[in-house]
Each structure stands twice: as structure tokens, then as C-alpha cells.
Design goal:
This protein has 327 residues and is mainly alpha-helical. The chain has helices at 11-41, 48-69, 73-79, 82-109, 112-119, 122-134, 140-161, 171-201, 207-225, 230-238, 249-268, 271-293, 299-317.
Length: 327
């Protein structure tokens, strides 16, 4: 029986693979550069809610512009339903809002090192939920790569949090208001990421449309929270754009660009790949701090670099083998 020739990859599949890599690299650079740009351009007295809401508005406008340009906006407008929007985007947006609240509670009751280490478990939960919701299996090598990535993320977190001390709270408070909230937040992060991937890959929902919907839902949640928050009082007293300068617009728009990229990476590559991007971005931040601020990378950062590179290489090289059905 003659040997069968391996199937050639279609130009469309190669083009999509190139685009996924481009989106991932751009998102890595955006995540990595965001802290440096924000620190340089946003004054301390800028109200956080005002910058976040403006970023969400910028994301909505950008996504609508792209959809109008590629001709999908009219089709989406005709087929859009409130139930579909709430199912595909409303649920993940609400989960992310709850996750952020839990992280804020946890951060106040844990030292930075413990918080950062536990927060990295979201990579594991993302892989777990993509398996349950999308039946996306991981090979043994890929599971090993995920553990390498988590170790690298923990090392990077140790480097970041080594200068911050403990919070000085009692053991019960640490458990119930520190450890449990951050672990629940990690579970929610993995679930929301898998739901977004399901909506885009299975339900075939446009990543741009999901960006618009999630930004609107997230903004409404944030506006509701301002009624009884210090930021809400500050906006009433000083105005929405208090402390803003022309430079403040740069990190806000840059962050909005990152939000669009997150949707594209999750849609085309999945939530697990996004985890690799976020950890890789920590290395980019360390490099940029060295270049622009003269702050050398910590030993933890240098040790984690080969771990991140190895984990990405292994994860890409050893995908889960799909068994062909015998006829």
C-alpha cells in the first residue's frame, strides 16, 4: 500500500497562524509597556474610574470602526439580540467584574508575594475550563509546559513583590479575606476566559462585537459602583477629567488597543495562549524598566526567562494528537 502524502497546509491556515502570532506579539508588547507608559503619562491625582471608563469608550469606538470598515457592522446590527449578547458577553463581563472585586479584597489582606503566587493559578483554571467547555485537550508535554509557565510566573511575582512586606492581619482574616477570594477570582478568570473562547470559536461571535458588548456591560457595572465609592465622590467634587493632561490620553488609548488584541488572541488562539502572553509580558516590562529606568532585572527574572521560552516552545511543538478515525 503506497504511503500517503501529508496534507499541505492551506494558505488560509498559514495566514491565520501568522496573524495569531502577530496578535500575540503585539499583545505581549502592549502588556509589557503599559505599566511604563502609564507611570510616565498619568498623574497620581487622576481618578482611576475616569481613565478606565474612557478606555472602555475608546475600545467600543475602535471596535465599531473596524466592523464598519470590514462591512460586518450592518450584518451584526440586523442579527443582534439582547439575549444573545447577554449569553455570549454579558455573563463573562459580569464574571470579570466580580473577579476584580474579589482581587481588590484579597490584595488588602495578603502580602504581595502570596497574592501574586496564588493569582497565577488562573492559567491552570483556564486550561481546565477550556477542556470542560470546549473539549480542548492538552498533551502531557503541554501540561508540563503549563506547569513551567506557572513556575516562571511565580518567580516573576516573587521578584516584583519581594520589596513589599506583610499586611499584619490575623490568620483567619488571611484565609477568609485573602486566600479564598484570590483562589475564587482565579477560578472565575479561567471560566470567563473559556466562555469568551466558546462564544467566539463555537458560537462564531465576532471578537469585535464581544469587545463592544463586554466594554458596555463592564462600564455599566463600574458606573453603578461609583454611587458609593471614593472615585464617585471625587468625580462629583472635581469633575470627570480631574488631573488629566494631553499625555494621559496616550496610555488610555494604548490600553484600549490592548483590549482589542485580547479579544483577537482569545478568539483565534484561546485563553491558554493568552496566559503565555501575560507571563511573557512581565519579562518585557523588566526589560523596558532596565532600558528606560536603569533598573536591572532581578535574579528571579533571569531564572524565569528560559522557563518562559521553554514552556512556549514545548506547548507549540507538542499539541494534543488527534486520532484519525479508521474507515
Amino acid at each position: 500500500m503506497p504511503a500517503t502524502k501529508p496534507k499541505a497546509r492551506s494558505p488560509g491556515s498559514e495566514s491565520m497562524g501568522t496573524r495569531v502570532w502577530l496578535y500575540s506579539i503585539l499583545l505581549t508588547l502592549q502588556y509589557g509597556a503599559q505599566p511604563i507608559i502609564s507611570k510616565s503619562c498619568i498623574r497620581r491625582d487622576v481618578i482611576v474610574t475616569s481613565s478606565v471608563l474612557t478606555c472602555e469608550i475608546a475600545k467600543v469606538i475602535s471596535a465599531l470602526f473596524v466592523m464598519a470598515k470590514d462591512g460586518t457592522l450592518k450584518k451584526v446590527y440586523k442579527e443582534w439580540t439582547l439575549v444573545g449578547a447577554l449569553t455570549a458577553s454579558g455573563l463573562p463581563a459580569a464574571i470579570y467584574a466580580l473577579q476584580n472585586s474579589l482581587l481588590q479584597i484579597s490584595y488588602r489582606n495578603l502580602d504581595s508575594l502570596t497574592f501574586s503566587m496564588l493569582n497565577q493559578t488562573k492559567i491552570f483554571f483556564t486550561a481546565l475550563f477550556t477542556f470542560f467547555l470546549l473539549r480542548q485537550k492538552q498533551s502531557i508535554q503541554q501540561i508540563g509546559a503549563l506547569f513551567l509557565l506557572i513556575i516562571a510566573a511565580v518567580l516573576l511575582s516573587i521578584g516584583e513583590g519581594s520589596n513589599k512586606g506583610s499586611t499584619g492581619v490575623n490568620a483567619d482574616q488571611v484565609l477568609f479575606y485573602g486566600i479564598i477570594p484570590v483562589l475564587v477570582a482565579s477560578v472565575l478568570s479561567g471560566l470567563a476566559s473559556a466562555l469568551c473562547q466558546w462564544a467566539s470559536q463555537v458560537n462564531k461571535r465576532s471578537s469585535y462585537l464581544m469587545t463592544v458588548e463586554m466594554s458596555i456591560v463592564g462600564s455599566l457595572c463600574m458606573l453603578a459602583s461609583t454611587f458609593k465609592s471614593p472615585d464617585g465622590e471625587a468625580i462629583k467634587q472635581h469633575g470627570f477629567f480631574y488631573g488629566w493632561t494631553p499625555l494621559t490620553v496616550i496610555p488610555v488609548l494604548f490600553n484600549a488597543f490592548g483590549g482589542i488584541l485580547v479579544g483577537l488572541v482569545t478568539s483565534h488562539a484561546g485563553g491558554v495562549r493568552k496566559g503565555f502572553v501575560i507571563v511573557s509580558a512581565l519579562l518585557v516590562t523588566a526589560l523596558l524598566q532596565f532600558i528606560f529606568e536603569g533598573k536591572p532585572p532581578s535574579m528571579y527574572c533571569l531564572v524565569s526567562l528560559p522557563l518562559v521560552v521553554s514552556s512556549i516552545s514545548i506547548y507549540q511543538k507538542y499539541p494534543y494528537p488527534i486520532k484519525k478515525k479508521e474507515h
